[in-house]
């Protein structure tokens, strides 16, 4: 469980770094047109703060997935129970590696994804040896 917690923290860090990097170079300034009243002068602002599935995935996907993963380990944030046994945890961290780490924040995302894959392997081993799976779905931090 501690390795899974570290993978969740790493993914959250990747999400924060990715959010900062993805807005880098965006011109989020608001301008006033001296020409026509309806001239579009705030295209950069609109592009930076557009809410579409593509934009949400580009800017916030690793952070959202990291917070969901972190929520599995902190009792106060344990809103959604994503997994309740080792096999489900293995699937979750495998998907977290590919959809929340690889492709985001450069080498940091790759390292975090590798940590998630190690956590996946450990969860698979635990699924084979610990048939009771008691406590896997319970938060690590009270």
Characterize the structure shown.
The structure is a single chain. This protein has 142 residues and is an all-alpha fold. Helices cover 60% and strands 0% of the residues. The chain is built from 5 helices and no strands. The chain has helices spanning 2-22, 43-48, 53-71, 86-100, 106-129. α1 (2-22) packs parallel to α4, α1 runs antiparallel to α5 and α3 packs antiparallel against α4 (86-100). The longest helix has 24 residues, at 106-129. The chain is elongated, with a radius of gyration of 19 Å. The mean pLDDT is 87.
Task: For the structure shown, list the relevant keywords.
5 helices; 0% strand; mainly alpha
Strand content bin:
under 5%
Give the topology string: H per helix, E per strand: HHHHH
The structural class is: mainly alpha
Largest sheet composition: none
> Low-confidence parts lasting 5 or more residues at pLDDT below 50?
none
Let me know the average pLDDT: 87
């Amino acid at each position: 469980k501690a390795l899974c917690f570290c993978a969740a923290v790493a993914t959250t860090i990747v999400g924060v770094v990715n959010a900062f990097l993805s807005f880098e170079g965006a011109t989020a300034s608001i301008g006033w047109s001296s020409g026509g009243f309806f001239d579009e002068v705030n295209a950069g602002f609109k592009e930076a703060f557009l809410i579409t599935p593509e934009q949400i995935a580009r800017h916030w996907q690793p952070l959202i997935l990291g917070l969901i993963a972190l929520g599995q380990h902190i009792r106060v944030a344990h809103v959604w129970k994503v997994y309740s046994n080792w096999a489900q945890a293995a699937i979750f961290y495998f998907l977290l590696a590919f959809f929340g780490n690889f492709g985001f924040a450069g080498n940091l995302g790759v390292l975090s994804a590798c940590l998630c894959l190690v956590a996946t392997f450990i969860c698979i081993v635990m699924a084979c040896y610990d048939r009771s799976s008691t406590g896997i779905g319970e938060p690590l931090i009270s």
